[in-house]
Structures are given as structure tokens and as C-alpha cells.
């Protein structure tokens, strides 16, 4: 009994010391998964109920009112960069480069986050089977389902992966700024082109954030950082 009690007390001391050192990090990871997951759940529930979203049509109409030759060309290019011309090649290059540099943990994180996000999107679209907007004939039509947006999920996943990999480096804020601008432009392009409802974009962003944070928490456990950094001592203090 005494030995068992000593073991329990040792585990308790280790746990308290660990939480003191890394409790804030655990809380941030928890909230980083919970908040976007709750947002996606709310959007999915409303869609399942068939009630729609009050902001979808007004925002689509406002975007269409801006249609001109210049913005048309710009957003067609942005949409292409948000998938086949930009995100997909960058995804592949990132994973290959990390593997080539023997950054196995970082490469595992990027690969699982990116591939898993794509599979989640492919699985979710037929599950919800939401038709594309049909308010006008798009200059860049799409043929599959609308919810959640694959462009939004793909661009946000890549952005989150890069931000999390760079978070403990001097590149943190430049990468954050570039990621925010890129993700926002890709999302706006899909609404401007009339191929997604704004709620599709929000759902794609939420799902990507929740998934990427969850993978990050599994690959880089509390106290472990990308690029080999760690804040955990062997005694857990």
C-alpha cells in the first residue's frame, strides 16, 4: 500500500509540474480544436435543418455587383492559386522538402494534415450534398457539391501548417500575415465567382483549423516543438 501511495503521489507531482509548465499550451490547443469544431457543427446543423443562412444570398449578390473584367481575371487566377496552380504544388513541395531535409516529425505533421484535410472534404461533400449557388452563370463553373468548400479547406490547411511550423521562429508574423491575406483572397474568390455560398467558406475554414490543430497536438505533444525544440525536461518539472 505504501509503495502504491508513493507511486500515486509521484504521478500527481509530475502531473502538477507538467500542467504548471504546459497548461497554457494545452488550453490553447484544446480551444484551437474546440472553437472551430463547434463552428462547423453549428453550420452543419443549420444546413441539415434546411433553414439556410441569412447572410449567404446578400453576400453573393453584393459580390456579383462588383463584377467587372479586371476583378473577373484577378479572382479566376486567385481561385486557381487556391487549388491546382498553388496550394496543391506547394503541399507536395512542402512534404517532399521536409522529408529530404530529414525533418521527419515536421513532414509527418504536414502530410497527415494535408492529406487528411483533402479526404475529409471529399467525404463531407456527398454527406451534405449541398447544391452549388445558382443565382447567375459563373465564369468558372464547378460540378461537384458545395459544402464545405475544398478551396477554403485546402488553403486554410496549408496556411495553418505553415504557421504552426514557423510559430517558434522569427518567421512567425510574416508567415501569419501572408497566410491571412492568401486564405481571405481564396475564400473571397469563390464567393465572387458564385460557386460557393459564404457559409461553405466558413465551414471549410473551421474544419481545416480543427483538423490541423488536432494533428499538431498528436504529432507535437505538449512541450515538443517543431524543428526539434522542446520545453519538457526528463523529470517533467
TrEMBL record:
User: Which reaction does this enzyme catalyse, per its entry?
Assistant: di-trans,octa-cis-undecaprenyl diphosphate + H2O = di-trans,octa-cis-undecaprenyl phosphate + phosphate + H(+)
Note the SMART domains from the entry: acidPPc
Task: Give the Gene Ontology MF terms in alphabetical order.
Answer: undecaprenyl-diphosphatase activity
GO cellular component, as recorded: plasma membrane
What keywords is this UniProt entry annotated with? Cell membrane, Hydrolase, Membrane, Transmembrane, Transmembrane helix
SUPFAM superfamilies referenced in this protein's UniProt entry, alphabetically:
Acid phosphatase/Vanadium-dependent haloperoxidase
Show the stretches that span the lipid bilayer.
Answer: 23-44, 74-96, 108-129, 149-168, 175-195, 201-220
Q: Where is the Phosphatidic acid phosphatase type 2/haloperoxidase domain?
A: 107-216
Q: Which Pfam families match?
A: PAP2
What compartments host this protein?
A: Cell membrane
Kindly give the InterPro entries that the UniProt entry links to this protein.
Answer: PAP2/HPO (IPR000326), PAP2/HPO_sf (IPR036938)
EC numbers on record: 3.6.1.27
Question: What is the protein's membrane topology class?
Answer: Multi-pass membrane protein
PANTHER family in the record: DECAPRENYLPHOSPHORYL-5-PHOSPHORIBOSE PHOSPHATASE RV3807C-RELATED (PTHR14969:SF62), SPHINGOSINE-1-PHOSPHATE PHOSPHOHYDROLASE (PTHR14969)
Q: List the protein's name.
A: undecaprenyl-diphosphate phosphatase
Q: Which organism encodes this protein?
A: Dokdonella fugitiva
Amino acid at each position: 500500500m505504501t509503495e502504491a501511495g508513493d507511486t500515486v503521489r509521484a504521478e500527481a507531482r509530475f502531473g502538477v509540474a507538467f500542467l504548471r509548465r504546459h497548461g497554457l499550451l494545452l488550453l490553447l490547443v484544446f480551444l484551437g480544436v474546440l472553437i472551430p469544431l463547434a463552428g462547423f457543427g453549428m453550420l452543419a446543423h443549420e444546413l441539415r435543418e434546411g433553414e439556410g443562412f441569412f447572410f449567404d444570398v446578400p453576400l453573393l449578390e453584393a459580390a456579383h455587383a462588383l463584377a467587372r473584367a479586371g476583378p473577373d481575371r484577378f479572382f479566376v487566377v486567385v481561385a486557381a492559386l487556391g487549388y491546382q496552380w498553388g496550394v496543391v504544388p506547394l503541399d507536395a513541395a512542402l512534404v517532399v522538402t521536409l522529408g529530404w531535409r530529414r525533418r521527419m516529425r515536421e513532414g509527418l505533421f504536414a502530410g497527415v494534415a494535408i492529406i487528411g484535410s483533402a479526404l475529409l472534404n471529399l467525404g463531407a461533400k456527398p454527406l451534405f450534398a449541398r447544391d452549388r449557388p445558382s443565382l447567375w452563370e459563373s465564369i468558372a463553373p464547378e460540378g461537384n457539391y458545395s459544402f464545405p468548400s475544398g478551396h477554403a479547406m485546402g488553403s486554410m490547411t496549408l496556411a495553418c501548417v505553415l504557421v504552426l511550423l514557423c510559430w517558434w521562429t522569427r518567421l512567425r508574423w510574416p508567415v501569419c500575415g501572408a497566410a491571412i491575406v492568401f486564405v481571405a483572397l481564396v475564400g473571397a474568390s469563390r464567393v465572387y465567382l458564385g460557386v460557393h455560398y459564404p457559409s461553405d467558406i466558413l465551414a471549410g475554414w473551421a474544419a481545416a483549423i480543427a483538423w490541423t490543430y488536432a494533428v499538431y497536438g498528436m504529432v507535437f505533444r505538449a512541450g515538443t516543438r517543431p524543428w526539434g525544440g522542446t520545453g519538457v525536461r526528463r523529470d517533467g518539472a
